[in-house]
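Comment on both lines for my students:
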Amino acid sequence: MTTPEPTTRDSEPTTHDPEQPRYEPPPSVGKLALWVLLFVVAAVVVVLGGLYLT
């Protein structure tokens, strides 16, 4: 019985090898929604601040 030679996939960074995760797991939906909400709140604060100062 022969063992297969290991293949390197450095030339293809988009392929996902489940044995060796190279990137962080995707954020959960709740965490993503929290970041979007934070961005929206910051945008509203900037707009309201601009309206108040003019």
Summary: The CA atoms of residues 35 and 41 lie 10 Å apart. The mean pLDDT is 79. The chain has one helix and no strands. The helical segments are 29-53.
